[in-house]
Write a structure and sequence with these properties.
The structure holds two protein chains of two kinds. Chain A is α/β, with parallel strands linked by helices. Chain A contains 15 helices and 28 strands. Among the domains of chain A are: 310-396, Roll (Luciferase, domain 3), CATH 2.30.38.10; 404-508, 2-Layer Sandwich (GMP Synthetase, Chain A, domain 3), CATH 3.30.300. A nine-stranded mixed sheet of chain A has the order 2-1-10-9-11-12-13-14-15, sandwiched between helices. A seven-stranded mixed sheet of chain A has the order 6-5-3-4-7-8-19, with helices on both faces. In chain A, strands 16, 17, 18, 20, 21 and 22 form a six-stranded antiparallel sheet that branches. Mean pLDDT of chain A is 86; it is low at 505-516. Chain B is mainly α. Chain B has one domain: Orthogonal Bundle (Non-ribosomal Peptide Synthetase Peptidyl Carrier Protein, Chain A). Chain B has helices at 2-16, 39-53, 68-83. The longest helix of chain B is centred in the last third of the chain and has 16 residues, at 68-83. The chains are: A alpha/beta, B mainly alpha. The interface between A and B is medium-sized, with 16 and 13 residues.
Amino acid sequence: MPSLRFVSKFHQVAKASPAAPALVWQGETRTYGELLDLVRPAREKVAALGDQGPICVPGGKSPDVIALLIACWEKERPVLLPSDKNAPAAIDDLAARAGCDHIAAVSRAGEFLAWRKPPAECAVPTGGLSFPADMLLMLTTSGSTSSPKVVLTSSSGIDAFIDWARDRFRLSGNTVALNYAPLNFDICLLDVWATLAVGGCVVLVEAAEAVSAESLSRLISVHGVTLTQAVPFFFRTLADAAAGPFQTVRDVLITGEAAGSATVRALPTLFPAAAVTNVYGCTETNDSFIHTATSEELAKGDVLPIGRPLPGVQVRLVTRDGGVVDGAAQGRLLVSSPYQVHGYLEAALTQTQFLPDPDPDCHDEGGSMPSPTRPFFDSGDIASRDEDGVYWFEGRNDHQVKVRGVGISTTSVEDALRSCPGVEDVAVIAVPDDIDGHALHAVIEAAPSSGRTRLTSLVLRRVCVECLPAAVMPASFTIVEVPLPRTSTGKIDRKSVEDAVLRNEKAVTSHAKWPSSSC
Amino acid sequence: MVQEIRAIKEFVIREFASDVTVDELESDYDLLNNGVIDSIGLLRTIAWLEKTFEVSLDSASPENLRTVESMHVLVTETRELMSGSPGADPGAVR
């Protein structure tokens, strides 16, 4: 919980219960006293910097990184926390954009190595940056482009969210939370920072452990995990391995994207003593909707609704023309939340995504008081509201999709591939996938051969690794030597491309339409 | 040795990169970082290596399967261990 109040609560806990377990990492337990021992030298490293600007910590996940973050917040230094999956050049660029004079270099083993400065060639914002006083953490959105959006969180908003989460999930010194997501994901506000604020224990899942049902099972069982919050892939991994049952888990939170039917049905067997909660939120708004699944829903494997707004959250469903719809209806989801962020680093971007209330006279569910000064975040998601006032997620409004819980734009993947020599044009198609949420399939129109190295999937993969986060790597590449199909207006006919991709997936037709190679 | 590397390349191409030729797949191409072989693909690869080269790869790690070259080293070293000979230098005395 990146706020001064968190720092205060953490120190209270560390003083009152220094022997209580705070973190489990790589099989070792660190007590609150031991974590505090890591914070002290980190504090000196931060103090040695002298100046007062924000700091970039592109860390993986380790006690040292957590101690460094606490030390930064103690010193009231805002922290930019980008994904360490970003290419190094992208992190440098982000740090420079956010006005960070220093970037923490963290080893693969999770140890702080040294401070470094963004390279001089990185674009430094002109005219200076002004940050809200109530802000100690900058998160980044999807990272699907080379310059992801930087989100300015609100410390008071996070404090309010943590209070809600503490009460809603009965967080206490007895809580053992499994932290599955990387530290830069906003959902860590609950399973890492809220847990540490109440004296609970956080079991940190490393990237290598995250795909192994055996490792995950061991962590849950050995450490008596009571709360798990993760994307459906996590639960699917355990279900496929017929793991469990995990009797100690009391709360299961599904987040990031909709869980598939088989995954939902497996949950009561995996976690027989747990309440299953479906949670919906964006980085910009934090958790906004919640639904506790009934035993009937779990048994049937129903698609779970996103549920009802959290206390104080106001919702508008708007049509294409911007009109607000009432009652049972479908529309683009706009959310105004007491837990939401200040906006983006770029004010112009904030203005396009954070809008005035489109219906100030609306009476909100639950009798929440309208906040005339708090804008509505345009989520870009399509949602429907049923006759009982329960909300359902229907899909993205544009080319945004989620792959392994990471929101990405297929357009940005196309842009990266299009930059590759030998590529004439490209269409990236997102196909729903039971495990990953979506799988991306790239269809590439090769430029006429000019005698250079032949365009192959191996070349294209290298380009993707250099330009894009790992989750964005397409599942398949189909290289064709004829023009992609186009609509009458000259745009790529995505529907035709998608149909061809699906036909190839099912292997029911040859590649007769396109002389292609696919892998 | 050359034949074995070629066989490994042919397997990788057949299973994971059907649009490339043996000559286009470099022995040191990073198959894991570049997403050619995923976690399920690793299992298939181990199974194929074990069957084809008649070795047991119980202790293989993903690092051993990162490139065609590292796969070949893994197979060669495992085979040497199984036969109990130092292999590379038969005359070496320790």
